[in-house]
Amino acid sequence: MGTELNDFINVAKRVRPQPIAQAIEQQQSEEMRHFKEVASQNNIIFFFSGYISQGVIETSADAIKSRLDATRANSKVKRRLVSSFIEIAQNIVHYSADTATDIHADDDEFRFGTLCISASGENFNVMCANPVLAATEQNLGRKLELLKQMSIEDIRAAYRETLHAEEGDEGSKGAGLGFLMLARDAREPIEFEFVPDPAWGSEFRMFYLKVSI
Amino acid sequence: MSNFYLPGTKHTPEVDFRYSEHRLSLKGECFPENAVKFFGDLMDRTQTYLSGLKGQMVEVNVQLTYFNSASTKLLFKMIADFDAASQAGNLVTLNWYYDEEDDTLEEFGRDIEDEYTSLKVEMHALSAL
């Protein structure tokens, strides 16, 4: 691989007057370099901001698994990280207020969100951000606040109770159980925030979530 | 009724429900975008199959590496159907396969064992390759 790359560089040198490495450096914008520095300082191992779909989630999960294989994190942590990532990402696809597909669609959806995973020693943080309706702050906010106060035993009990319960919420694709599963796998209470966003107007909030694995 | 087969994908398990042989198997990953869509038809067919049984031995094999929250709920419901079939006089065995290092999967199997007492649950810990 190294020899091939050198051959390529030598060929490219004959085409371009400058050394290839220098040309690439100059092409990189200051913003890109700054972004990479920030990412590196924060130990960001995954970042995606855009319209998320099932396909994006599958490919991202694969990429994250490969990346994790190179780290020293234990298998339980790795497994919980991937599970949590998928759960959080699917929440965006189901509930983000910014949708590229029909709001009433129930499959093949594309919705906007930001997903970010950072490493912290042998642990990880999964964060996400997506716009939601302001009413969600009342409903979901209240549930998440209660969840934050719960002990791990309470969480496990609530998880079992929810699992056994009959179908409840209209339009819910498993939200209650999903957050309980995230809380159960997390090493700290789940952090969240609903922030008004001037770009979005008063009927919306930006929803932030952080799960520590 | 005709057997049901679906090849596995990156996000859905292989479904090999051989009603004629009374052997129903699920294997792989399970995080479909819409779990109701994925499980709905399968559960309907399976309920029809189960309701027609009398004093029948049935083998259910589940070897899932991961299931998202929506799938968890429906999987649990489907297992409830197997338990009901057991209560109705059939002998349904659920073989629950899990990676020996996966405490989440193991725990789920034990929860099923505790909850569904008419069902015969066999736990199978698989050593990591």
Observed structural traits:
heterodimer; A: 213 residues; alpha+beta; Heat Shock Protein 90; five-stranded antiparallel β-sheet; 8 helices; 5 strands; 21% strand; globular; B: 129 residues; alpha/beta; Transcription Regulator spoIIAA; six-stranded mixed β-sheet; 3 helices
If you had to describe this structure to a student in words, what would you say it looks like?
The complex is a heterodimer of chains A (213) and B (129). With 213 residues, chain A is of the alpha+beta class. Chain A folds into 2 domains: 1-40, no CATH class; 42-212, Histidine kinase-like ATPase, C-terminal domain (Heat Shock Protein 90, 2-Layer Sandwich). Chain A has 8 helices and 5 strands. Chain A has helices at residues 2-15, 20-27, 30-41, 54-69, 75-95, 134-149, 152-164, 175-185; strands at residues 44-52, 111-120, 123-133, 191-195, 204-212. In chain A, strands 1-2-3-5-4 form a 5-stranded antiparallel beta sheet. In chain A, a hairpin with a 2-residue loop joins strand 2 and strand 3 (123-133). In chain A, helix 5 (75-95) runs antiparallel to helix 8. In chain A, 28% of the residues are buried. Chain B is α/β, with parallel strands linked by helices. Chain B has one domain: 2-Layer Sandwich (Transcription Regulator spoIIAA). Helices cover 38% and strands 33% of the residues of chain B. Chain B contains 3 helices and 6 strands; from the N terminus they run E-E-E-H-E-H-E-H-E. Chain B has helices spanning 35-51, 69-87, 103-115; strands spanning 4-6, 14-18, 23-30, 57-67, 91-99, 120-126. In chain B, strands 1-2-3-4-5-6 form a 6-stranded mixed beta sheet, covered by helices on one side. In chain B, helix 1 links the parallel strand 3 and strand 4 (57-67). In chain B, helix 1 (35-51) packs parallel to helix 2 (69-87). The longest helix of chain B is centred in the middle third of the chain and has 19 residues, at 69-87. The model of chain B has no long low-confidence stretch (mean pLDDT 96).
